[in-house]
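ok so i was messing around last nite and threw this chain in just to see what happens. nothing serious, just curious
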Amino acid sequence: MPPVKLAPRRYVIEMFIVMSVYVGLITGRPYLLSQTHQPLLEHAIEISPALPIWVVFFVVVRYYRRIDEFQQRQLLETLALCFGLAAAFLASYSFFEDAGAPHLSTVWVWPIMGVIWAVTGMFQRLRTR
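result:
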């Protein structure tokens, strides 16, 4: 098992690779769809950005298993806060739409959760210093 000190670095590298693949699939998807006319291949291209989203889950689990108990508790607290804030925001946004806010596609759920996760993580780190 690798030292706990290396866990954050490995996590950042793994997450960077997965997010790069995600961005590449999102941006390249329209072009790839315009170049194919085979229904099975079109469906594969359409759902391809879902794969890196699932890989992120496994990257986070690997990171969790590599860190010490204190860091695990911090990560779980951050994820709990992130989930609560994201759930409250996303569940209440439909009321904002009723009041005239633009429609929020479900494609934005993942980036919104990522931003909330990053912000809550920063606050958690500041709180524990």
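not much to say yet. The chain has a mean pLDDT of 91.
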